Amino acid sequence: TEQSLLLEGWETSKYKVYNNLSKEEREAVMDLSKDNRIVVRPADKGGAVVLQNVGDYESEIKRQLSDLTFYEKLASDPTNRLKIRVHSQLEYHFNNGEFDKNGFEFLKVEHPVIPVVYTLPKIHKGLDIPLKGRPIVSGIGSLTENISAYVDYFIKSEHNNDNYQATKILSRHV
C-alpha cells in the first residue's frame, strides 16, 4: 500500500548517540525548558540554543502575523470547510482507482489539528531585541499532513527522480 511505501527507507540511525552534556548540564537544560517565563528554541542557523523572554518571543510572532503582505486574518476557522473539500477530492481519486482503501484511509484525516506557527531566532542576523525569527508552520496532525508525506515520498522517490516525470504525475492530480 501507499502507506507502507512511505515507511520504506526509513530506518533507525546506525550511529551511536553520545551525550555532550554532563548530568548537571542536562538537568539545568531541563529546568530551563520548564520555566514558563522563557522560550528555548534552536537558532535558525549554526546549531546554537537560544533562550528568549516569552514577551519578546511573542512580540516577534505578533509582528510577523500582522504583516498583511504574507498573512490574512480569518473571520472563522476554515478547517471543516476545507476538510469537506479535501475528503471529496480524496474520494474522487479513490473511486478512480488511484489508490487503494488503505491509502485512502491513510490520506483522510478525520480529526485534524490546526497547524501551529513558531519562529526560530535568527541570531546570525544580529542580536537586536526582540530577535527576528524565521517562521515555521508545524502541520503535525493537520488536514494535509499525510497528503504532504505522500506527495513528498513520490517527489523524492528514486523511481521518479526525473523532474519532468514528477511534474507530470503531480499535474494530473491538481
What is the C-alpha radius of gyration, as a whole number of Å? 21 Å
What composes the largest sheet? 2 strands, antiparallel
How many domains comprise the coordinates? 1
**N to C succession of SSEs:** HHEEHHHEEHH
Number of strands: 4
Number of helices: 7
Choose one word for the global shape.
extended
Q: Mean pLDDT across all residues, rounded?
A: 84
Residue stretches low in confidence (pLDDT < 50, at least 5 long) are 1-10
Task: Order the strands across the largest sheet as they lie in space.
Answer: 1-2
Task: Bin the helical content.
Answer: 40-55%
Question: Approximately how much beta-strand content do the residues carry?
Answer: 5-15%
Structural class call reads alpha+beta
Roughly how many Å apart are the termini?
Answer: 22 Å
Labels describing this entry:
single chain; alpha+beta; disordered N terminus; extended; two-stranded antiparallel ribbon
How is this structure best described in words?
The chain has 174 residues and is α+β, with helices and mostly antiparallel strands. The chain has one domain. The chain is 44% helix and 13% strand. The chain contains seven helices and four strands, in the order ααββαααββαα. The strands form two sheets. Strands 1-2 form a two-stranded antiparallel ribbon. Strands 3-4 form a two-stranded antiparallel sheet. The two termini are 22 Å apart. The N terminus is likely disordered.
